[in-house]
Amino acid sequence: MQIAEQERIASPTFVLAWVVSFLQFVVFYALVTTMALYAVRQFAASEAGAGLASSSFVIGATLARIVTGHVVDRFGRRRVLLVALAVVVVSCALYLPASSLPALIVVRMLHGAAYAFASTAVMAAAQSAIPASRRAEGTGILALGTTLATAIGPALGLFLVGSAGYGWLFWTTLGVTVASLLLALALGEHPAAAPAPTPDPAPAGVDHGEALTPGEEGASEVPVEHPAPAVGFRLRSVLHPAVVPIAGFMLIVGLAYSGVITYLDAYSVDRGLTAGAGFFFLAYAAAMLLMRLTLGTVQDRRGDDVVVYPALVCFLAALLLLATATQDWQVVVAGALSGLGYGTLMPAAQAIAVNAVPAHQLGAGISTLMLFADVGLGLGPVALGGLVAAAGYGAMYAVLAAALVVGCVYYFAVHGRKHGRNGTAAAR
After folding, report:
1. Nearest to 195 by CA among 416, 376, 388, 2
2. Residue 334 half-sphere exposure, CB side, CA atoms within 13 Å?
3. Domains assigned to the chain
4. How far apart are CA 322 and CA 337, in angstroms?
5. For residue 197, pLDDT beyond 60
6. In this structure, what DSSP letter does residue 192 have?
7. Residues 6+ apart with CB under 8 A from 14
8. Per residue, what are the HEC states of 211-272?
9. What single string gives the DSSP state of each residue in 357-369?
10. What global pTM score does this model have?
């Protein structure tokens, strides 16, 4: 009975972390879909200025990722999460008085940096609450929050702007961030549970959920977190060597996805496929939601390759379909395929990354993965802009499909060839 209790995913820590993460993603998507047009309408920004107003969030987040892992592991997940969420609340409040484009860009960068710390800390907290034998399954459930936010966030932002104006959008996102901060205060404050035996030591580089298993007198159902000893800032704190290979794979995948989220709107207008583009992310979220609960279990039991390779094929098909689409339904199908593709690859890679590091280095492992993914998402549009201008959207998506093939070969070389057949349960 005690073992079954330890193996459950839906612990109070995990549930609270899931909700906090979901609320942060809702705010992110609600603002990112409306910020460029807001900059144009409010400050008469140029196209470049509007793009910077939107992407400055990612710039701030990417710069912060350099130190988030070290800070989270050094000072503790809960402490960093609370401070970061407090800064997020301040950032959201500053959208209201921001009276110029430079001020808006500074607020966006501050929000992005605080979000990077909060997301790393909350994901580390959630991952620490997932039993090692159900790592991919739990990571998939955690990713469902992102999936739902992908559909709810943009819809909420566009609805508020269209019906009530930007002021209501900023007040609503501020309220959501305050709610997430209040919920985060409850993390780690649950009553004590009966102590359980301490698990056997795990081999280096494999997280067996030590931080979650109550093993000492006075331990609670929520793990007692012990911040890492005070050590100097090192390169390993920024780029955990065990995670860099899979993170490099996600940089390529993120580059491919950046062409979707950045240029889908303009692409649909250029080809007269705006109706299909309107349902793209709804199809994305629906497809991922249907498959995510089962794919994590499959990855745990049958290995990473069984999930990663089909996801790559789906994402490749989505990019090729976008490159050649002439009808709205093709864009909708591409959205569903993107959900099965990119929407599956990110949580699958996160499970691989978490299993590659010990429990006390979860922050460094997660921040390494997200740093590389952010670089791909953030720098991709800059590199692709010239390609779109020179050759058009069809050629851009074709080139991204080719890049994804390179990513597949890279994944095989760095992970699939030796470790791809081992699932979490098998590793344990």
Report:
1. 2
2. 27
3. 7-187 (1.20.1250.20), 236-428 (1.20.1250.20)
4. 11
5. no
6. B
7. 126, 129, 130, 138, 142
8. CCCCCCCCCECCCCCCCCCCCCCCHHHHCCCCCHHHHHHHHHHHHHHHHHHHHHHHHHHHHC
9. S-GGGHHHHHHHH
10. 0.70
